[in-house]
Design goal:
Keywords: Signal. Its cofactor is Zn(2+). Belongs to the peptidase M16 family. By secondary structure, this protein is an alpha+beta fold. The protein folds into 2 domains: about 230 residues, Cytochrome Bc1 Complex, Chain A, domain 1; about 190 residues, Metalloenzyme, LuxS/M16 peptidase-like (Cytochrome Bc1 Complex, Chain A, domain 1), CATH 3.30.830.10. The strands form 2 sheets. It has a 7-stranded mixed beta sheet, with helices on both faces. The protein has a 5-stranded mixed beta sheet with strand order 8-12-9-11-10. A hairpin with a 4-residue loop joins strand 1 and strand 2. Helix 1 crosses helix 7 and helix 11 packs across helix 15.
Length: about 500
């Protein structure tokens, strides 16, 4: 399967590892920390109004520009609190790649009111859990706690939105942690190296060509001033959305948001450049040599990304195509290439239609013993060609749609799942109120539409191919066995 170099959404192909069908199918005792430890709060003079959007969900925009989304779910006395900043690696510039992820680490290193590491200790003392993740499109921080502790975690998170201390000493230590994270997740994993190289080959103008963790030379040259500039530029209430899901009342959450996040002034955000990817003019190929037991093939076609819910119908058909190929246990790639024809040891498909930047549709796998990468490439191409020429069976389509509906129902059982579904849409420009409409559009996809996208988009002019050429594994070389024991990367 495709590599997973970082955390949530950091390499779009890696989403297949956790749920087989991606894109819209996926979307689809102690005082601890009293509010007054941050100072006396006062509600802003300008009233903020809650608006009900869909069942149990309310939204508001504070006077300082912060967006608030509250979804009431009283089934358990718990709550998920998240703050999402619309700033990811897509907003970085050459020479400072990785700075979004570095700043994510630094957010746990203390503020003007709490010591380094104290944030995590206090959440742990509440019996909660917390962490953060950086992607191409955003950076997010979350806590899961009993509902009684919501005021405390909101105060903690609001504190570091404005009061973060970025010291030379803490930065010097943490940048080494990030560099080791890069070594462990990418440099010592040939599949991750291949994915990184393929992205740098597939994209030229788009910032998606750079890894989220950053190029090692940029990390080595990075300074605390770079991290401080990123924080000052992008960590502002008017570039953030706070979402709270759980056993809460929206009006009470709004009052807490006004008392915590509402204290900070809005900022003038840097202008965002278009950085449009130019048209690809021909097939691109790249090889990576590395210690591995088997070869590995990764194919990526440029395809549409969702921008207009009503007009961009091809993205729904591409989502269904991904699921037809690799969305359930008996999907075509596993059934045909692994079980029946025994061409591949494994084979998969992945497509994410929601992104701030361009989209890719991936096919990948490793050839079976006695087969070559060329054999696998031909077989993967043949699966697309067969659908382009012969279409799909109605029962295949109905199976995918049934699984989509089931996955959507299961996701509603989790506060975190509900929050992630809402925010992954919001951060890529799709309103969360469109969730049901997106489901309707998927359910309306016809076999003819799936056949059409298979015929129209899977051409060599849109294709980049990456191949991992295995080299002998040297057990005496520690640098090649690092991945056997995972370092303790806290965030």
């Amino acid at each position: 399967m495709a590599p997973q170099p970082l955390t949530v959404n950091q390499a779009r192909v890696n989403r297949r590892r956790n749920t087989r069908s991606k894109s819209l199918l996926t979307w689809l005792g102690l005082s601890l920390f009293s509010l007054f430890s941050l100072g006396c709060f006062s509600t802003p003079a300008h009233a903020t109004t809650l608006t009900k959007t869909v069942a149990g969900t309310h939204v508001a925009t504070l006077p300082n520009g912060l967006n608030l989304i509250v979804k009431e779910d009283p089934r358990a006395p718990t709550v998920v609190h998240m703050v999402w900043y619309k700033a990811g690696s897509i907003d970085e510039t050459n020479g400072t790649t990785g700075v979004a992820h570095v700043l994510e680490h630094m957010m746990f290193k203390g503020t003007r009111t709490i010591k380094p590491g104290e944030f995590s200790k206090r959440v742990a003392a509440m019996g909660g859990r917390e962490n953060a993740f950086t992607s191409t499109d955003f950076t997010a921080y979350f806590q899961q706690v009993h509902k009684r502790y919501l005021p405390q975690v909101m105060a903690l998170e609001a504190d570091r939105m404005h009061n973060l201390v970025l010291s030379e000493k803490e930065f010097a230590q943490e940048i080494k942690v990030v560099m080791e994270e890069r070594r462990w997740r990418t440099d010592d994993k040939p599949k991750s190296q291949l994915f990184e190289t393929l992205m740098a080959t597939a994209f030229t103008a788009s910032p998606y060509h750079a890894p989220i963790v950053g190029w090692m030379s940029d990390l080595e040259a990075m300074t605390v001033a770079d991290a401080r500039r990123w924080y000052q530029d992008w960590y502002a209430p008017n570039n953030a959305t706070v979402i709270v899901v759980g056993d809460v009342r929206a009006a009470e959450v709004l009052a807490l948001a006004q008392q915590t996040y509402g204290r900070w002034p809005r900022k003038a955000l840097p202008p965002r450049k278009p950085q449009q990817e130019p048209a690809q003019l021909g097939l691109r190929r790249v090889q990576v040599h590395g210690p591995a037991e088997t070869p590995y093939l990764l194919m990526a076609w440029k395809v549409p990304v969702l921008r207009d819910i009503e007009q961009d119908n091809d993205v729904y058909a591409l989502s269904v195509l991904s699921a037809i190929l690799d969305g359930y246990e008996g999907a075509r790639l596993t059934a045909n290439l692994v079980r029946n024809d025994k061409i591949a040891l494994n084979a998969g498909a992945s497509y994410d239609s929601t992104a701030r930047g361009p989209a890719l549709f991936y096919l990948d796998g490793s050839p079976a013993p006695g087969k070559t990468v060329a054999d696998l490439e031909q077989a993967l191409r043949a699966q697309i060609t067969q659908i382009a020429q012969q279409g799909i069976r109605e029962e295949e389509l109905q199976r995918v749609k049934a699984q989509l509906i089931a996955a959507r129902v299961y996701k509603q059982d989790s506060n975190m799942g509900q929050a992630m579904e809402i925010m992954q849409l919001e951060m890529t420009g799709i309103p969360h109120t469109a969730s049901d409409r997106l489901l309707e559009k998927i359910r309306a996809v016809t076999p003819a539409q799936v056949q059409a996208v298979a015929r129209n988009y899977f051409i060599d002019a849109h294709l980049t191919i990456g191949e991992l050429v295995p080299e002998p594994i040297d057990p005496a070389n520690p640098s090649k066995t690092r991945a056997k024991s995972r370092p303790n990367f806290r965030h």
